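I had to read the description of the data format several times before I understood it. For illustration, here is how one protein appears when written out as sequence plus structure tokens:
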Amino acid sequence: MSRSIVGEKTKIMADQKSIVVKSKPRNTETVIRFLLLFCAAVSILTTVGIVFVLLFETIEFFKEVPLWSFLTDTKWTPLFIPKHFGILPLLSGSFLITLGACLVALPIGLMTAIYLSEYAPDRVRRTIKPILEVLAGVPTIVYGYFALTFVTPLIRDIFPEAGVFNALSASIVVGILILPMVASLSEDAMVAVPRSLRDGAYALGATKLEVATKVVVPAGLSGIIASFVLAFSRAIGETMIVTIAAGATPKLTLNPLESVQTMTAYIVQVSLGDIQFGSIEYKTIFAVGMTLFLITLIINVIAQWVTRRYKEEY
């Protein structure tokens, strides 16, 4: 009888120890859960804070400058007299360089992705892809001086009328900058396409090129579009290359051989510290920043809609 009692006591003590041991992982999970929640909250609050600062200063700017004048005036001279606050020259410069960069990066990046996904042997793929990703790690200021000292002289040899600072040079180098992003993300989207689709196309007599362009690319279209949008957003938000290579002349033009100024380059110019805090010139950087933020937001919303519309699930 006493042995059974002792045995039950021992069993109860063992159960209590196991309960204590099991409670530690639960406490750890609770701490980790709150830590992850804190990190998520910091990210959200940071975004809200950025939007709040932009919105507050932009409202203060539009108390002094009419919105219609900001959107329609063809001159941007807030640092000179007479002052003009038309955003169109900065918009045209930003889109001119961004579209030029996309013309360089998107076709080359997509063809590179097709080669890596469908044609390249595994050894070649493992060699080329890391090299492409190294390009994405080069500081943008290095790209800027590369554009100014190497690309621009080549352009002026071909087009003597081109200026030392011109949009074409900046477009080419920004295209080189976003090329690894397009190639890498598009290749990942194509590799994710099931092998059965390729085998089915080959069984029907399709060539490798037909399989790549008519089966793999449409099947991975959502990921390819996502890479294009990320590249476009990266290009329109690029700062150092356009500041160094494109110049600082806000001009409403579509000629890539002329000097232009982008929205990001203007923000850099005003942020150097020569402008009085709280002045109308100071507030222009927030109005320009809000414009850039809204453009990027609209592009991403459209891209998400297109991605959901053409997404393929296997």
Remarks:
- Residues 72-309 form a domain with the MetI-like fold fold (CATH 1.10.3720.10).
